[in-house]
Amino acid sequence: MGHPTGAAKRPLSPHLSIWKWGPAMAVSILHRVSGNALAVAGLAVLLWFVGAIAGGAASYETFQSVMGSPIGIIVLIGISWSFFNHLMSGIRHLVLDVGAGYEVERNNRWSVITILLGILLTALFWAVIILV
Amino acid sequence: MGNGTRIGRVRGLGSAHEGAHHWLLQRFTAIGNLILVLWLVFSLAMLPDYSFATVYGWLSSPFSATAMVLLIISTFWHARLGMQVMIEDYLGGANRFAAILLLNLVFLSLGVFGVISVIRIALGGA
Ligand code: HEM
Q1: Domain ranges, ordered by start, for chain B
Q2: Membrane-spanning residues where (chain B) (predicted)?
Q3: How many Cβ contacts (< 8 angstroms) between chains A and B?
């Protein structure tokens, strides 16, 4: 690999296989997965949504028929779960940022609660869409 | 600067002097996303139906259009910052530079497209 100098010598982050799994590790990787899913799929659908409306009734109908198809619904469920999961772990990040919640017992408990809340809110959201 | 131990390889390099700013912006835009995406979620859940007329009527109001433009700016900025962190974790050297350059170009262009679309809707161009 030669002998890089300066910034090039900074080590990279260890990959997934290096870490020991635990509740905190699970929220952390889910935060990354859901954040990037939102950034790629979520923002793509959002752009298509506003772009299609700007394009007029015909282009909006194309958007609507694709997103209303079974595959479209699965994508939307995935995006909504990504949002609620990322929202919960994001709030957890902000709490940890002020220095709270590092005791092993509490940290583990809230890690699990974060993941469960993300799933619960997704179910609640779709219940409202379908039932109300 | 040693080559042997891992700590020896990073000691003395110092910080990149941009980290704290990046970190803080990630937090500011996170709060922006929190408010704005929840606004979108509630708005969509409360629309009576998803016909073109309904959705167009909703998004063309000055309030909705403003919120949507802010939402696009906040989410694209936050996503760009976040994806840069991921790239920095797994790529080094020229690959890292190229990936971040591409990321910036793509997110800036797409974000502008989104904002222009909303402005067009708000001004009744469609
Ligand atoms: C809905 C649009 C959103 C998108 C597209 C998005 C995207 C991302 C991405 C790609 C990352 C980087 C993940 C990583 O490096 O592992 C990230 C990180 C982060 N997100 Fe979001 N996010 C969104 C909403 C939110 C919300 C609502 C919050 C807060 C309540 C939030 C809080 C955070 C925080 C605190 C980080 C930094 C984590 C760290 O420092 O490691 N995000 N986001």
Answers
A1: 19-122
A2: 28-48, 55-77, 97-123
A3: 95
Q: Take residue A67 and report the two structure tokens written for it.
A: 């997103």
Q: Is residue A83 in contact with ligand 1, taking CB distance under 6 Å?
A: yes
Mark yes or no for CB contact A43/B79 under 8 Å: yes
pTM of structure: 0.89
Ligand 1 centre distance from Cα of residue A1 (Å): 34
Q: Which of B24, B37, B66 to mutate to test the interface with A (most CBs of A within 10 A)?
A: B37
**pLDDT tens readout for residues A42-55:** 999 999 999 999 99
A21 in the Ramachandran plot: left (φ > 0), alpha (ψ -120 to 50) or beta? beta
Q: What Rg do the C-alpha atoms of chain A give, in angstroms?
A: 20
Q: pLDDT for B38-53, tens place per residue?
A: 999 999 999 999 999 9
CB contact under 8 A, A50 and B91: no
CATH number of the domain where residue A108 is located: 1.20.1300.10
ipTM here: 0.88
B19-122 CATH fold: 3 helical TM bundles of succinate and fumarate reductases (1.20.1300)
Q: Other CB atoms closer than 10 Å to residue B30's CB: what's the count?
A: 19
